[in-house]
Design a protein that fits this description.
Layout lengths: L1 E6 L3 H5 L3 H8 L3 E5 L10 H4 L5 E5 L10 E5 L5 E3 L5 H4 L4 E5 L3 E7 L7 H23 L3 E7 L23 H12 L2 E3 L13 E2 L5 H4 L2 E2 L2 E6 L6 E6 L11 E5 L2
Parallel strand pairs: 1-2, 7-8
Antiparallel strand pairs: 1-14, 2-4, 3-4, 5-6, 6-7, 8-12, 9-12, 10-11, 13-14
Length: 255
Amino acid sequence: MKMLCWNVDGLRSVLKKGFVQWLLEESPDMLCLQETRLSDDEVPEELRHIDGYHSYFSRHTTKKGYSGVALFTKKEPVKVEKGFGIPRFDDEGRTLVADYGNFVLMNVYFPNGKASQERLDYKMEFYDAFLEFADQLHKQGKGVIVCGDVNTAHTELDIARPKDNAKRSGFLPMERAWMDKFESHGYVDTYREFEKEGGHYTYWDMRTGARKRNVGWRIDYFYISKDLLPHLKNAYIESDVQGSDHCPIGIEIDV
């Protein structure tokens, strides 16, 4: 199976830039999107009915043009849930959990903590709630696949300028320590199974033209539970795909 993940920084924006054609040409089995910024009544019909795909959307319940995730999948899941079952986290429309029977695919747009201490606290609390939920799924005997914009660069290999950003949310010691904790619970950073060097990023600040200079952050990830590792065939970054301040990432896995 080919799975892709992409923070599109506005689904309507990439729709105008050939999104549907790109999706059909890539032909992933599953595509997870973050930061769609669409309410249910704003999703264009051409996105609801893409040939060969089932589509699912989650949105912020009160704030329009904010957050939101989407799933396009060739295989129909057994069920799809929106969130962890905790209203203060689910209300922001950041999570879709697709149960395929033998594995669960979690599409998550993790919060950004840069705006204020309150949002940083919210981000860390979201992290902990997510990890508890993921662990519960895994204890049920299901393989777990997690993808999305984690909004944290894990190590110095994952950011172009680690020293300059050491005191900024997205590269704080506490955020990076949580990612250590996440991996210690038995989840594997798929990209690092194939690429051990730095210089490979998934997000660039558009205002400073950082993409042309490759001054970026790797904050988008595919994680899998260790029991799925023997089935992982490839993991990669599609840095040539334009249309957002993020680029797509992907894995190939036999599940």
